[in-house]
UniProtKB/TrEMBL annotation, chain A:
Lineage, top ranks: Eukaryota, Viridiplantae, Streptophyta, Embryophyta, Tracheophyta
Compartment(s) where it occurs, according to its Swiss-Prot or TrEMBL record: Cytoplasm
Pfam families: MoaE (PF02391)
One of the record's GO molecular function terms: molybdopterin synthase activity
Keyword Transferase: yes
Protein name per Swiss-Prot or TrEMBL: Molybdopterin synthase catalytic subunit
Entry similarity comment: Belongs to the MoaE family. MOCS2B subfamily.
UniProtKB/TrEMBL annotation, chain B:
Record's subcellular location: Cytoplasm
Self-association and partners: Heterotetramer; composed of 2 small (MOCS2A) and 2 large (MOCS2B) subunits.
Entry PTM: C-terminal thiocarboxylation occurs in 2 steps, it is first acyl-adenylated (-COAMP) via the hesA/moeB/thiF part of MOCS3, then thiocarboxylated (-COSH) via the rhodanese domain of MOCS3.
GO-annotated cellular components: molybdopterin adenylyltransferase complex; molybdopterin synthase complex
Family: Belongs to the MoaD family. MOCS2A subfamily.
Keywords assigned by UniProt, alphabetized: Cytoplasm, Molybdenum cofactor biosynthesis, Nucleotide-binding, Phosphoprotein
Keyword Cytoplasm (UniProt): yes
CDD domains: Ubl_MoaD
Major localisation: cytoplasm
Modified residues (1-thioglycine): G107
Disordered: annotated span: 1-23
Protein name per the record: Molybdopterin synthase sulfur carrier subunit
Length: 173, 107
């Protein structure tokens, strides 16, 4: 799409050797003299799941597709709100408990647009960007599953069966 | 009836040679397994030789025979072709990259 907009989007999939997310780098990237607001979201890793103590979390990605999806959801956000700059970063590899695994920042002239876009971006990361997290416990490990992904999959399967009853009605959001 | 004769003219099109002779060569598909799919198959990638005209769903059925353990995630996974989500009905061409995407858990 418009390369001018693409230059205002920073998408990073950080490999295991990158260490903690440099939050200031992404906030500074979206800083803009025209902006009246910067909204950010930091996703951090929890220490317990169903009462079990989580020792560490390991992330992996289908990197080229994840980068492509992240760029696409930034473009979608720009289609929905007037935005200045966007940044999304996701870590891979082992992430210690309590550290940031994902960070999103959006700037806009007014705060409502920045906050809504920030929310949209993290929700889309959860629903559609091919990144996986394994939780490692003292005695076992499990691949987590985002409910946002499963809900979207279910909706597509309802909408998309063999029969061709495609209603072209309003119902989009 | 002749009332809407124009609308009934489509039948002749059936003669078009849309059904290509499927004497085509096999196509080669690269398959990627991530996360739980990789754990279940024990490999991160494989390749399939499929008849020309095969869909992503045809490949999936083939993979379920080759790796029966994939049945465990078949009802929660999705497919991607060349880094884009795709339906099982999508036609494949040689050198396509098919990815098995188990439930994602980024964030």
């Amino acid at each position: 799409m418009a390369s001018a907009a693409a230059e205002m989007d920073l998408v990073d999939i950080l490999d295991a050797s990158s260490g903690p997310i440099d939050i200031a780098r992404y906030v500074d990237f979206v800083r803009d003299p025209a902006a009246g607001a910067i909204a950010t979201f930091e996703g951090t890793t929890r220490d317990t799941f169903e009462g079990k103590l989580v020792e560490e979390l390991r992330y992996e990605a289908y990197v080229p597709m994840a980068a492509r999806r992240l760029a696409a959801i930034c473009a979608e956000a720009r289609g929905s709100w007037p935005l200045l700059r966007l940044a999304v970063a996701h870590r891979l590899g082992t992430v210690g408990v309590g550290e940031a695994s994902v960070f999103v920042a959006a700037s806009a002239v007014h705060r409502a647009e920045a906050m809504e876009a920030c929310r949209y971006l993290i929700d889309e990361v959860k629903a559609s960007v091919p990144i996986w997290k394994k939780e490692v416990y003292e005695n076992g490990e499990v691949w987590k599953e985002n409910k946002e992904f499963l809900e979207r999959r279910a909706a597509h399967h309802e909408m998309d069966p063999a029969h061709e009853l495609k209603e072209t009605s309003n119902g989009e959001e | 009836m002749e009332i809407a004769g124009g609308l009934n003219d489509g039948t002749g099109e059936m003669n078009e040679s849309k059904v290509e002779k499927s004497a085509g060569q096999d196509i080669k598909i690269k398959v990627l397994f991530f996360a739980r799919a990789r754990d279940l198959t024990g490999v991160s990638e494989t390749s399939l030789e499929m008849p020309d005209g095969s869909t992503a769903g045809d490949c999936m059925r083939n993979l379920l025979v080759k790796f029966p353990s994939l049945q465990e995630i078949y009802n929660s996974m999705v497919l991607a072709i060349n880094e884009e989500y795709a339906a099982e009905s999508t036609l494949l061409t040689s050198k396509d990259e098919l990815a098995i995407i188990p439930p994602i858990s980024g964030g």
